[in-house]
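Read as chain and fold; for instance:
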Amino acid sequence: MNARAMIERFDPGVVGAQLDAEGYALLPGCFEAHEARALARLLDEVPDASGDAGHALVSPASFASIAPAEPASGESLYFGTGLPPPLHAWREALYRWLVPAANRWHALAGIEQCFPAELDTFLDANRRAGQRRPQSHLSRLRAGDRLALHRHDEGEQVFPFQVIVLLSAPQRDFTGGEFVMTEQRPRMQSRPMVVPLALGDAAIIATAQRPVEGAHGHYRARLKHAISRVRSGERTGLELLFHDAP
């Protein structure tokens, strides 16, 4: 998994246009099938209470907790002080790649904040703002589980994009479990969107809001995302965020 090579396969102009039009952009086949399944297996290979790691990608410092979420929401593995090395490099490279689009969105929305070029610098600003809780995590949903509509916009330092990755195969490993987004524009009904994902596909999505051009300039549309109820099997996914929570 070479982070730079993965990202350079995608045209930033095309990705930016998709983000502007829909609030998300697909990165098909971002991960090879074996890479996606190796990430999914981390849910079963978390270090035990003695701190012994069950997989080379996991160290005692690289996870926070694995526990059931809310009822019918499956379980989540939250990474703590550091992501596993392949994901850490990919997150840094993606942040660097997305900064121009993030700054352009803020300018269109009338927000003065500019994001620094490097992720470490941005995370330093997070810490100064009291945001120290990592949010990136793996999730596993089984039959009957779902993930309710939500967004990750706590704190004053919020990066406008996050990344989601599907780590299991629809119709083979699970049925149902579609990734869903809703967009709320002023004085309009919510717009639902189903983001089509296959094993190893990634999508860049708006974290919480995006600029939309109107008759009198740009305004902010608010977005949330969810996973519909899994009907059978087991669905595993990754949410990768670039900012920490308070």
The longest strand covers residues 217-227. Residues 85-108 form the longest helix (24 residues). The mean pLDDT is 87. The radius of gyration is 18 Å.
